[in-house]
Amino acid sequence: MNSLFTPVSWSDTGFILTGVMNTVTISIVAIVLGTLLGLAVGFLRAESSKVVNILLGGVLDILRSVPLIIQLILFSTFIGVMGYPLDPFVAGSIILSLYTMAFMSEVFRSGFESVHQSMRTSARSLGMSYAQTIFYIRLPIGLRAVFPSWLGVALSVIKDSALVSVIGYMELLRTSDQLISRSQQPLEILIGVGIFYFIISYPLSSYGRYVERKMAI
Amino acid sequence: MDYEFHWNVVFQNMPELLNGAFVTLHVSVLAMLLGIVIAILLAIAKMNNSKPYCYIATTWVEIARNTPALFQIYMAYFGLGALGIHLSPYVAVLSALIFINAGYLTETFRGGFQSIPSTQYSASKSLGMTSIQVYRYIILPQMLRRIYHPMTNQFVWSILMSSLGILVGMGELSGTTQRLQSLSFRTLEFFMVAAVMYFIITKLVLFSSSLLSRKLFKGEI
Amino acid sequence: MISIQNVHKSFGDLEVLKGVSLDVQKGEVLSIIGGSGSGKSTLLYCINAIEGIHKGKIFVDDVDVHSKATNKDKLRQKLGMVFQQWNSFPHMTVLENAALAPRIVKKMSKAEAIEVAKKELVHVGLGDKFDVYPTKMSGGQQQRLAIARALAMKPDYMLFDEVTSALDPELVGEVLDTLRLLADEGMTMICVTHEMGFARDVSDRVAYFHEGVIAELGEAKQVITDPQNPLTQKFLSKVR
Amino acid sequence: MISIQNVHKSFGDLEVLKGVSLDVQKGEVLSIIGGSGSGKSTLLYCINAIEGIHKGKIFVDDVDVHSKATNKDKLRQKLGMVFQQWNSFPHMTVLENAALAPRIVKKMSKAEAIEVAKKELVHVGLGDKFDVYPTKMSGGQQQRLAIARALAMKPDYMLFDEVTSALDPELVGEVLDTLRLLADEGMTMICVTHEMGFARDVSDRVAYFHEGVIAELGEAKQVITDPQNPLTQKFLSKVR
Amino acid sequence: DQLDTVIQRGTLNCGVVLDFPPMGYFDENNQPAGFDVGYCNDLAAALGVESNILNLTWGDRIPSLISGKTDVVIGSTSDTLERAKSVGFTYPYFVFKFQVIASKDKNIQSFDDLENLKVGAALGTTYETEYLAYAEKKGWGTDNYTAFKSENDAYLGLYQGKVDAVISTNTNIATKLQSEEFKDFAAGPFVPNYDDVVGLIAKRSEGAWISYLNLFLVHQIRGGNMNTHYNTYFGSDAPADLIQSLRDNK
Ligand SMILES: Nc1ncnc2c1ncn2[C@@H]1O[C@H](COP(=O)(O)OP(=O)(O)OP(=O)(O)O)[C@@H](O)[C@H]1O
Ligand SMILES: Nc1ncnc2c1ncn2[C@@H]1O[C@H](COP(=O)(O)OP(=O)(O)OP(=O)(O)O)[C@@H](O)[C@H]1O
Ligand SMILES: [Mg+2]
Ligand SMILES: [Mg+2]
Questions:
Q1: pLDDT averaged over chain B?
Q2: Nearest to B174 among A70, A162, A185 (CB)
Q3: Where are the transmembrane segments (chain A) (predicted)?
Q4: pTM of the entire structure?
Q5: Where are the strands (E) in E46-184, listed by range?
């Protein structure tokens, strides 16, 4: 007869670390992909006509108006039913990246638009080509301006990555859920998890606000 | 594709889904209202610089902003449970949402307040208004406009995040969907309908909020 | 009469007013000119008790402005003030802007307050803008609104702080015209200004501020066209 | 030579330029004055091919600016332009600002570009600011930077669009001095300006714009001090 | 067909819900364990292929099959006719009884004693449905009922005192009661008139594969594997009536 309940012990460190690593991995993947896609879509939206904007906006709107948890379940089920089973990491990465993109694209769009038309014109009047204006002027200035908002979205992605547990990805929160079932010690484990998120998120968000304040001056 | 959609089972269960949607809506409304009340207190505490209150407010805000909502909900449910404090799933989700809303709204309120140029205060003062009058007629009405939009967003966020009720067996829209689909194994159909319902709810909220703002706020700032 | 007696004022370590004395008689128009940061605005704020002072005294009609016993809200009703940045209340129409203070401060009935407000708005030439929101108006119109709003309180004195500095050149004229009108009607005015032509033509006296003190004070034409103090000369040559 | 021939330009339904003709000779300084919205900026943008035109032609050194065959990026290298505002690139130091276009547009080597940039920065009096970020400088310094940046492209013509309008009154002088210096050196310039003194003293000719047409064009002193057209008279009396 | 596919592939992708001890759970080394896991391994051995255990959530079971991620799900799936419209069931491989577990001092004798107690169960399970139906019939209302997202959470809630009693399966209750943590608890009455009969599930269209699985189940009993696993995870021989009802395909 195997024992069902065993307290958390040092031998679980590896298991917890796997959870931590998985949370970190999927967050990084989503932030990187979400940022790249967001950049592209944000630029497209800043530059394109009203019609394109409404179409793009509609798609992004769905991503922002349906709870992430439902998107995850729906997507992983749907793609499975379609005959392309994905493991939770891949399915989770895709949805989390798209979800991130939806928010990032707004961030970058406002960044591109924050570079004043006159400044773009100044650049053009120096003989720079359209591409040079984007590369040397709008990107660097726009990206700087939106850094705090970007960081804000990135941090919320780290937090939202906890939801990928619902499709079976063994990230930190699901790992700890498992340990809780096994040990019946929720408080200790949850506090540990909370501290982990806090020490990642707090310094970064403080830094973001610091930068924001500095830029406001 | 090796899957036939069976929609009739979903429609049979529509009343239950709608009931879930109703729970979703009222847990978010309650979380918003109570969150606002607490956030006002926290924002005042933060701006007053009186040490102990400011410290409590800051701690609240930072924890709320820097840990996942899912964590807050587990904490309210099982974390507090370990201490012998038993919240029902509804109350656990509600209190987690209140906690987070209050944390985020505190910063919204503070920012909104600080965004009113101090010259508005001087100008009002120079007309002989008392401080209370300045707040009542000049500062607060302008502040309300500025925080209205972020507040609407926070409300939408609450609606979406209440879907985490699924994880503590709460009977809101997601929880209900989860239960119904596991009885018939019609996962896709049920969750698609739930997604559409969430979409409609958030759009309705945004739409009525913009109607209301047009009624409330005449001039632009 | 406004009587300023040896006023000192600091912000932290920075002494902004270093002993300013000045009397402004009823009916007089005084312009204050001077470089940025010389303390011009600060002086106006001190007269209005929006800022406190550290030494000296300021009397408005023999009331000690900075005494604890003075009801400052009451006092400010006597002193209309208009600032450099348009301080219209963006959430109210033009008429509501001008009627608010009479109604809530002077406790007029709504109808009375609106009547007063309308009168002053017509006075400054905004008779056709009652229901417009200020953000929809030009800077010059917003400044005239600010003037009407102050006038609606029936003040005995008006303080103007560079009311044309933030305006497009073409809009300066209309605001100066309004000031001129007030001066002609006999309003007692202290105007901080960068418009030398206005200072010369409209005011009775001009005070030149330099680093927190009055470096030169005299009859308007003389100070602007024939300044005595080398500092004033240098300043005037720079702003031409 | 810049030759503008019966140029028409609309934004949607709004006709902003209604047939403008104007020749500017090499070495000439032309000032354009006129009310807000009269189309002054638009004309400069059309010369620079930043905006297209709907009728007429513009030639710069006999190149048809708006012809499809014209390489516009190339053309703009000939035409330096400075705007009212938003000129400096805030993410680069002063030196990088000035060296960027020579490097990436003219494909100079980095060292060459920096040399050119340094020379022009010294020219406008910013020799001590190479490593400063523009946001740390005054508006006047930023405008001079913008001028140096344009000069670093060795343009044959300079277009100035109200380069002093956004400046504090005390900073206007230093920028006008820089323009004067360029004029003295023989640069061909078109200056949209609100500074009548500058228009009168520095330019050879002045054009008065009114609602998209040139209402008066003549020798500078004459237009400013003795305008013939009643519209010009009215405008000048307003801006005094 | 599926059978050939598995044999040619050389691995059996077997879905298990590891959230449902002792049928499926993580042991102290955080490795999959349980009755269902044992069955997976036996099936793979029978086919002569590698066994690949996939950890599923309850909701994953159907999609994983339809998408081909899993060949079979051994996950205590109740064989309702409603579900059989969506997925293919084998003969039953296990029968649960739904039972109440509550702290000893509650002294629950009959199902009706639950009337004024706080009762919990895992969300979307058959026994949740049964309890709610019973409560409705008796007019108890649902105020005293708490749903949990999983079986594990339900026990945690019971342990913490969130609820007074939990409805679960007799097997799960029996194993829980052997642990130190649940020494103050006792098994209560069964849910009246209901047995939870569970089968393996596979794609509805794979008839041949399902008959192979059916035969496999017969051999598990005949060959004694069933009893071995029962011993490992439940601590006793499989009851004769369970074996008999499985043989009867009840
Ligand atoms: N609230 C304040 N806190 C700290 N320093 C202040 C404050 N208000 C003004 N100062 C400082 O006091 C000095 C005088 O300011 P003041 O506004 O009176 O100058 P000013 O003569 O009105 O200049 P300007 O022409 O630029 O309006 C400045 O150096 C300013 O930075
Ligand atoms: N990109 C644009 N789209 C639409 N309308 C424009 C655009 N640019 C300018 N206009 C309009 O064209 C008219 C002329 O503008 P322009 O900027 O040339 O005037 P201006 O003489 O330079 O005035 P100011 O002195 O205010 O700079 C204005 O009514 C303006 O609103
Ligand atoms: Mg001032
Ligand atoms: Mg212009």
A1: 90
A2: A70
A3: 20-44, 90-108, 129-147, 185-205
A4: 0.82
A5: 50-56, 72-78, 88-103, 119-122, 145-148, 165-169
